[in-house]
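Why do we care about 3D structure at all? Because function follows from shape, and shape follows, mostly, from sequence. That is the central idea of this module. The next example makes it concrete: a single protein chain, its amino acid sequence, and then its structure expressed as tokens.
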Amino acid sequence: MTKAELTEKIKRFVPEGTEGYVVDLLIQYKIQLKLNKPRSSKFGDYRSPGIDSRHHRITVNKDLNPYNFLITFLHEVAHLTAFEKFRNRIEPHGKEWKSEFKTILQPVVSHHQLPDDIMVAIRHYMHDPSASSCSDAHLMKVLARYDKDQKLLLEQVPFGALFKLDTGRVFKKGKKLRSWYQCFEQPSNKEYRVSGISKVDIVES
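And the structure:
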């Protein structure tokens, strides 16, 4: 596939103006990029070359909005560059990875290719990147503004209400536990903790 063909394929998944940077990274590091079906537990992942493949492999959920797709992809590229420098001698999201992620993000931030609210959220996030962008509540809320499906967040649901996750599982909302909520799956009433920034649908009782 030529660079022009790859750019044409990538441009519909990332913000306008960032496709060149993404394609350059794909080519430079010989990345196999796979678009995955939606996963509630993670937005993307990275696998280093192994016995079954000589290439770096990155997966990203294909349902993410362009800004979330870009940040998730760059998050995984930072794992790649950290692996190339340190192999498996570091913590997955330790100081080395954080440094790599800041470096990978910098060209996007420097060229002001994103909306102002996302730029502000990213700059705040870059001070101390979390293990996952989806664990940063403020960044997630800002990114969610650009989703096609504008669903409620669990934190917006009344106490005691029934709600449904994208997986189809139904819960009753309980008390707040920091950034999580004590929730009870229906009809078993088994207790779980669900993030307050999870997207949900209200279920009429």
